[in-house]
Amino acid sequence: MPVRPQRWRRREERAGSWNQLLDLLFADAWNEAIGRFRSPFAFRGQPSAAADLSSGLLRLAAGRDAAALEQHLLRNFRKYAHGEVGERSIWHWLALAQHRGLPTRLVDWTYSPFVALHFATASLQHMNVDGAVWMCNFVEANALLPRRLRTLLAREGSDTATVDMLKSVQSLAEFDRLAQRPFLLFLEPPSLDPRITNQFALFSLMPDAAACLDRWLAASPQLARRIIIPAKLKWEVRDKLDQLNINERVLFPGLDGLSRWLTRYYWSHPDRHASNETLESMRGRRKRAGPARRNGSLRARSRSRR
Fold first, then answer.
1. Whether 137 and 283 share a structural domain
2. Is the domain of 203 the same as that of 298?
């Protein structure tokens, strides 16, 4: 059952500006061993800071037997989708099901802090509440994996698993028996379509359909941190992400993503969400600009976008 999100003492930061937000997201990205900036963190953006890290399966179960529900969902998904997909390992089916919207034990993450920021600021109905970006150190989390999985990763020289690397683990039941203590594994999905590639996606999973990631991270607080994005900062972050071409049109290729992007891009001006100081500044600029410029603002905005 979903739980109240944990507060990370000394591991939670509140961004006061765009520049501070970038500093927080890219903190500890330097890898001394290879002399490059290679962040060990996976990122997850959430439009509301009040949300926890429950999987879609756990939310759907709502107190019911999550393991039994998982079995029913995957069995029927494989049965009805077999004609389109063919024979695959359980890991391919699990990644495909999650990608296509079926509630599973997987939790979505991304290697990109900007993609995470998109998901934290893309929901128009949540623009007046604080959002959050979770960061989880998947490199350090690997030290808590069972020996069999650590060996698989070491053999490939990888910090994350793939569906091919896990093919020797033939079922979720076998995966759940790999260790007596809970652990967290990060899994890179196959490039099923451009959406997964563009979102720089990866998943996390635990050896129990009913496992709660919040509780596990609360017991290992050194692995995670959370960055709060204040509501008053969200529109600035959103507009700058659009300027960086981090938007629905790119992350969800196709007409659906294009329509979602255009709907949000031309949404009414967010004066009611702005701070008093920002609002007065905008009003001052409008007054100086004059009526003619205000009347042509939509046309100018459309021209400047291209």
1. no
2. no
Structural domain contains residue 284:
yes
pLDDT tens digit string along 18-66?
999 999 999 999 999 999 999 999 999 999 999 999 999 999 999 999 9
* Partners of 155 in the β-ladder: none
Distance separating alpha carbons of residues 273 and 282, to the nearest angstrom: 13
| Domain count of the fold of the chain | 2
Of 222, 247, 272, which residue is a domain's last? 247
Residue 241 amino acid letter = L
Q: Which of 247, 277, 295 is the last residue of a domain?
A: 247
Q: Do residues 274 and 282 touch, judged by C-beta distance below 8 A? A: yes
The 3-class secondary structure across 153-167, one letter per residue, is HHHHCCCCEECCCCC
CB atoms within 10 A of CB 272: 9
For 67-108, the pLDDT digits (tens) are: 999 999 999 999 998 877 766 899 999 999 999 999 999 999
Report the predicted TM-score, pTM, of the whole model to 2 decimal places: 0.84
As a whole number of angstroms, the distance between CA 300 and CA 305 comes to: 9
